Input
Amino acid sequence: MNKTLLGTLSGLAAASIWGVMYVVSKVVLQVIPPFALITCRLVLGSLALWFVLGMRPHSGISHQNFWRIFGVGAIGYGVSLGFQFIGTKLSSASNASLVTSATPAFILIFSAWLLKERITGMRVLALVAATIGVVAVIDPRNSTLEAPRFVGNLALLAAALTWALYSVLIRMVTRQSDVLTVSLVAFLGGLPIALPAGVVELRTIGIGQVTLGTVMGVLFLGLIATALAMWLWNTAFALVEAGRVSLTFFAQPIVGTLLSWLLLKEALTPLFLIGGVLIAAGVLLASRQEQE
Output
Protein backbone atom coordinates (compact mmCIF):
# COMPACT_ATOMS: atom_id res chain seq x y z
CA MET A 1 0.00 0.00 0.00
CA ASN A 2 1.54 3.35 -1.03
CA LYS A 3 1.99 6.20 1.42
CA THR A 4 -0.71 8.40 -0.11
CA LEU A 5 -3.39 5.72 0.13
CA LEU A 6 -2.34 4.64 3.63
CA GLY A 7 -2.31 8.24 4.84
CA THR A 8 -5.72 8.98 3.33
CA LEU A 9 -7.27 5.86 4.86
CA SER A 10 -5.72 6.71 8.24
CA GLY A 11 -7.22 10.20 8.12
CA LEU A 12 -10.64 8.87 7.11
CA ALA A 13 -10.58 6.29 9.92
CA ALA A 14 -9.64 8.92 12.53
CA ALA A 15 -12.33 11.36 11.36
CA SER A 16 -14.92 8.56 11.33
CA ILE A 17 -14.11 7.67 14.94
CA TRP A 18 -14.48 11.35 15.89
CA GLY A 19 -17.91 11.33 14.25
CA VAL A 20 -18.90 8.85 16.95
CA MET A 21 -16.99 10.82 19.60
CA TYR A 22 -19.24 13.90 19.40
CA VAL A 23 -22.28 11.83 20.38
CA VAL A 24 -20.45 10.03 23.20
CA SER A 25 -18.74 13.13 24.61
CA LYS A 26 -22.00 15.09 24.65
CA VAL A 27 -23.45 12.42 26.97
CA VAL A 28 -20.36 11.96 29.18
CA LEU A 29 -19.95 15.73 29.62
CA GLN A 30 -23.26 15.75 31.47
CA VAL A 31 -21.47 13.80 34.22
CA ILE A 32 -17.78 14.77 34.01
CA PRO A 33 -16.65 18.38 33.39
CA PRO A 34 -14.57 19.17 30.24
CA PHE A 35 -10.97 19.32 31.49
CA ALA A 36 -11.44 16.43 33.91
CA LEU A 37 -12.65 14.38 30.95
CA ILE A 38 -9.71 15.49 28.80
CA THR A 39 -7.36 14.39 31.61
CA CYS A 40 -9.01 10.97 31.66
CA ARG A 41 -8.64 10.74 27.87
CA LEU A 42 -4.97 11.69 27.90
CA VAL A 43 -4.06 9.38 30.78
CA LEU A 44 -5.83 6.42 29.18
CA GLY A 45 -4.38 7.25 25.76
CA SER A 46 -0.85 7.60 27.16
CA LEU A 47 -1.07 4.28 28.99
CA ALA A 48 -2.32 2.53 25.84
CA LEU A 49 0.48 3.91 23.65
CA TRP A 50 3.11 3.26 26.35
CA PHE A 51 1.96 -0.37 26.46
CA VAL A 52 2.16 -0.71 22.67
CA LEU A 53 5.62 0.92 22.56
CA GLY A 54 6.82 -1.55 25.16
CA MET A 55 5.74 -4.43 22.92
CA ARG A 56 7.84 -3.43 19.91
CA PRO A 57 11.19 -1.84 19.04
CA HIS A 58 11.05 1.93 18.66
CA SER A 59 13.47 4.73 17.92
CA GLY A 60 14.72 7.07 20.61
CA ILE A 61 14.02 10.76 20.74
CA SER A 62 16.39 13.65 21.34
CA HIS A 63 15.95 15.99 24.30
CA GLN A 64 15.31 18.96 21.99
CA ASN A 65 12.77 17.09 19.88
CA PHE A 66 11.00 15.81 23.00
CA TRP A 67 10.22 19.34 24.18
CA ARG A 68 9.25 20.44 20.68
CA ILE A 69 6.69 17.63 20.47
CA PHE A 70 5.61 18.31 24.06
CA GLY A 71 4.77 21.91 23.08
CA VAL A 72 2.85 20.78 20.00
CA GLY A 73 0.87 18.42 22.22
CA ALA A 74 0.02 21.29 24.58
CA ILE A 75 -1.59 23.10 21.63
CA GLY A 76 -3.49 20.07 20.36
CA TYR A 77 -4.44 18.18 23.50
CA GLY A 78 -4.47 20.95 26.07
CA VAL A 79 -5.75 24.04 24.29
CA SER A 80 -7.67 22.63 21.31
CA LEU A 81 -9.39 19.74 23.11
CA GLY A 82 -10.25 22.11 25.93
CA PHE A 83 -11.99 24.49 23.55
CA GLN A 84 -13.69 21.55 21.82
CA PHE A 85 -15.17 20.06 24.98
CA ILE A 86 -16.24 23.46 26.34
CA GLY A 87 -17.88 24.25 23.00
CA THR A 88 -19.57 20.85 22.81
CA LYS A 89 -20.93 21.24 26.34
CA LEU A 90 -22.27 24.77 25.78
CA SER A 91 -23.46 24.39 22.20
CA SER A 92 -25.30 21.67 20.27
CA ALA A 93 -23.97 18.62 18.42
CA SER A 94 -25.03 20.05 15.06
CA ASN A 95 -23.35 23.37 15.86
CA ALA A 96 -20.19 21.51 16.86
CA SER A 97 -20.06 19.65 13.55
CA LEU A 98 -20.83 22.79 11.56
CA VAL A 99 -18.32 25.13 13.22
CA THR A 100 -15.43 22.67 13.41
CA SER A 101 -15.86 21.89 9.70
CA ALA A 102 -13.75 25.04 9.22
CA THR A 103 -10.70 22.98 10.28
CA PRO A 104 -9.63 21.89 6.75
CA ALA A 105 -9.64 25.49 5.52
CA PHE A 106 -7.43 26.52 8.44
CA ILE A 107 -5.12 23.55 7.75
CA LEU A 108 -4.76 24.67 4.14
CA ILE A 109 -3.68 28.15 5.30
CA PHE A 110 -1.26 26.88 7.95
CA SER A 111 0.27 24.30 5.58
CA ALA A 112 1.01 27.03 3.04
CA TRP A 113 2.51 29.28 5.73
CA LEU A 114 4.53 26.77 7.77
CA LEU A 115 5.17 23.90 5.36
CA LYS A 116 5.33 25.95 2.15
CA GLU A 117 2.78 23.67 0.47
CA ARG A 118 1.23 25.06 -2.69
CA ILE A 119 -2.38 26.25 -2.59
CA THR A 120 -3.40 25.14 -6.07
CA GLY A 121 -6.65 25.86 -7.87
CA MET A 122 -7.53 22.16 -7.76
CA ARG A 123 -6.98 22.00 -4.01
CA VAL A 124 -9.13 25.07 -3.39
CA LEU A 125 -11.86 23.61 -5.64
CA ALA A 126 -11.71 20.36 -3.67
CA LEU A 127 -12.00 22.25 -0.38
CA VAL A 128 -14.95 24.34 -1.62
CA ALA A 129 -16.80 21.26 -2.92
CA ALA A 130 -16.28 19.34 0.32
CA THR A 131 -17.23 22.35 2.47
CA ILE A 132 -20.50 22.85 0.60
CA GLY A 133 -21.07 19.14 0.99
CA VAL A 134 -20.59 19.18 4.75
CA VAL A 135 -22.96 22.15 5.09
CA ALA A 136 -25.56 20.16 3.14
CA VAL A 137 -25.02 17.06 5.28
CA ILE A 138 -25.39 18.96 8.55
CA ASP A 139 -28.18 21.25 7.24
CA PRO A 140 -27.67 24.65 8.97
CA ARG A 141 -31.41 24.84 9.64
CA ASN A 142 -30.73 22.40 12.50
CA SER A 143 -28.13 24.70 14.04
CA THR A 144 -28.75 27.68 16.27
CA LEU A 145 -26.65 30.78 16.83
CA GLU A 146 -28.64 32.56 19.53
CA ALA A 147 -26.89 34.31 22.42
CA PRO A 148 -26.98 31.45 25.00
CA ARG A 149 -24.81 29.33 22.70
CA PHE A 150 -22.61 32.10 21.34
CA VAL A 151 -19.75 31.41 23.76
CA GLY A 152 -19.90 27.71 22.87
CA ASN A 153 -19.70 28.50 19.17
CA LEU A 154 -16.69 30.79 19.73
CA ALA A 155 -14.99 27.98 21.68
CA LEU A 156 -15.65 25.56 18.80
CA LEU A 157 -14.18 28.02 16.31
CA ALA A 158 -11.07 28.33 18.51
CA ALA A 159 -10.91 24.54 18.62
CA ALA A 160 -10.99 24.34 14.82
CA LEU A 161 -8.23 26.95 14.50
CA THR A 162 -5.90 25.40 17.09
CA TRP A 163 -6.50 21.83 15.86
CA ALA A 164 -5.53 22.95 12.35
CA LEU A 165 -2.30 24.44 13.74
CA TYR A 166 -1.61 21.24 15.69
CA SER A 167 -2.18 19.07 12.60
CA VAL A 168 0.35 21.03 10.54
CA LEU A 169 2.92 21.13 13.35
CA ILE A 170 2.60 17.37 13.88
CA ARG A 171 3.69 16.85 10.27
CA MET A 172 6.83 18.82 11.05
CA VAL A 173 7.81 16.94 14.22
CA THR A 174 7.15 13.44 12.81
CA ARG A 175 10.01 13.94 10.35
CA GLN A 176 12.51 13.10 13.09
CA SER A 177 10.66 10.53 15.22
CA ASP A 178 8.23 7.66 14.69
CA VAL A 179 4.54 8.48 14.90
CA LEU A 180 3.74 6.33 17.93
CA THR A 181 6.45 7.98 20.04
CA VAL A 182 5.38 11.44 18.84
CA SER A 183 1.77 10.68 19.75
CA LEU A 184 2.69 9.57 23.28
CA VAL A 185 4.85 12.63 23.97
CA ALA A 186 2.13 14.90 22.54
CA PHE A 187 -0.43 13.36 24.90
CA LEU A 188 1.89 14.14 27.82
CA GLY A 189 2.13 17.72 26.54
CA GLY A 190 -1.59 18.21 27.02
CA LEU A 191 -1.57 17.16 30.69
CA PRO A 192 0.03 20.31 32.25
CA ILE A 193 -2.98 22.27 30.96
CA ALA A 194 -5.75 19.70 31.36
CA LEU A 195 -4.78 18.25 34.75
CA PRO A 196 -4.75 21.47 36.87
CA ALA A 197 -7.93 22.72 35.16
CA GLY A 198 -9.55 19.33 35.77
CA VAL A 199 -8.66 19.43 39.49
CA VAL A 200 -10.23 22.89 39.80
CA GLU A 201 -13.37 21.64 38.04
CA LEU A 202 -13.69 18.65 40.37
CA ARG A 203 -13.35 20.90 43.42
CA THR A 204 -15.80 23.54 42.22
CA ILE A 205 -18.26 21.63 40.02
CA GLY A 206 -17.80 18.00 40.98
CA ILE A 207 -19.07 15.09 38.94
CA GLY A 208 -22.51 13.65 38.43
CA GLN A 209 -23.71 10.11 38.95
CA VAL A 210 -21.28 7.70 37.29
CA THR A 211 -22.97 4.75 35.61
CA LEU A 212 -21.69 1.83 33.58
CA GLY A 213 -22.53 3.84 30.47
CA THR A 214 -20.36 6.71 31.72
CA VAL A 215 -17.42 4.35 32.31
CA MET A 216 -17.82 2.79 28.87
CA GLY A 217 -18.00 6.27 27.34
CA VAL A 218 -14.77 7.34 29.07
CA LEU A 219 -13.02 4.15 27.94
CA PHE A 220 -14.16 4.77 24.35
CA LEU A 221 -12.96 8.38 24.47
CA GLY A 222 -9.60 7.43 26.00
CA LEU A 223 -8.68 4.26 24.12
CA ILE A 224 -10.46 4.64 20.77
CA ALA A 225 -11.08 8.36 20.19
CA THR A 226 -7.71 9.34 21.71
CA ALA A 227 -5.07 6.57 21.54
CA LEU A 228 -6.21 4.98 18.27
CA ALA A 229 -7.75 7.92 16.42
CA MET A 230 -5.02 10.42 17.33
CA TRP A 231 -2.33 7.95 16.23
CA LEU A 232 -4.17 7.44 12.93
CA TRP A 233 -4.52 11.22 12.43
CA ASN A 234 -0.83 11.80 13.19
CA THR A 235 0.09 8.97 10.82
CA ALA A 236 -1.96 10.57 8.05
CA PHE A 237 -0.14 13.89 8.42
CA ALA A 238 3.22 12.16 8.59
CA LEU A 239 2.61 10.40 5.25
CA VAL A 240 0.59 12.87 3.14
CA GLU A 241 0.67 16.61 2.46
CA ALA A 242 -1.38 18.45 5.08
CA GLY A 243 -3.56 20.27 2.54
CA ARG A 244 -4.68 17.01 0.98
CA VAL A 245 -5.23 14.88 4.07
CA SER A 246 -7.19 17.70 5.74
CA LEU A 247 -10.16 16.84 3.52
CA THR A 248 -10.54 13.47 5.25
CA PHE A 249 -11.81 15.47 8.26
CA PHE A 250 -15.13 15.78 6.43
CA ALA A 251 -15.85 12.10 7.15
CA GLN A 252 -16.74 13.20 10.68
CA PRO A 253 -20.16 14.83 9.98
CA ILE A 254 -21.12 12.03 7.58
CA VAL A 255 -20.54 9.38 10.24
CA GLY A 256 -22.30 11.48 12.87
CA THR A 257 -25.36 11.91 10.67
CA LEU A 258 -25.44 8.22 9.75
CA LEU A 259 -25.30 7.28 13.43
CA SER A 260 -28.21 9.62 14.13
CA TRP A 261 -30.13 7.79 11.40
CA LEU A 262 -29.20 4.30 12.66
CA LEU A 263 -29.46 4.86 16.42
CA LEU A 264 -31.85 7.77 16.80
CA LYS A 265 -34.06 6.98 13.81
CA GLU A 266 -33.56 10.45 12.36
CA ALA A 267 -34.47 10.73 8.68
CA LEU A 268 -31.85 11.06 5.96
CA THR A 269 -32.77 13.98 3.74
CA PRO A 270 -31.88 14.45 0.06
CA LEU A 271 -29.40 17.10 1.26
CA PHE A 272 -27.41 14.37 3.01
CA LEU A 273 -27.04 12.40 -0.21
CA ILE A 274 -26.07 15.52 -2.18
CA GLY A 275 -23.61 16.51 0.52
CA GLY A 276 -22.05 13.05 0.58
CA VAL A 277 -21.47 13.18 -3.17
CA LEU A 278 -19.87 16.64 -2.92
CA ILE A 279 -17.56 15.54 -0.09
CA ALA A 280 -16.52 12.47 -2.07
CA ALA A 281 -15.90 14.67 -5.10
CA GLY A 282 -13.71 16.96 -3.01
CA VAL A 283 -11.58 14.07 -1.75
CA LEU A 284 -11.26 12.66 -5.30
CA LEU A 285 -10.20 16.05 -6.64
CA ALA A 286 -7.56 16.28 -3.94
CA SER A 287 -6.36 12.74 -4.82
CA ARG A 288 -6.05 13.75 -8.47
CA GLN A 289 -4.02 16.80 -7.44
CA GLU A 290 -1.70 14.58 -5.40
CA GLN A 291 -1.05 12.33 -8.39
CA GLU A 292 -0.21 15.18 -10.78
In short: The radius of gyration is 18 Å.
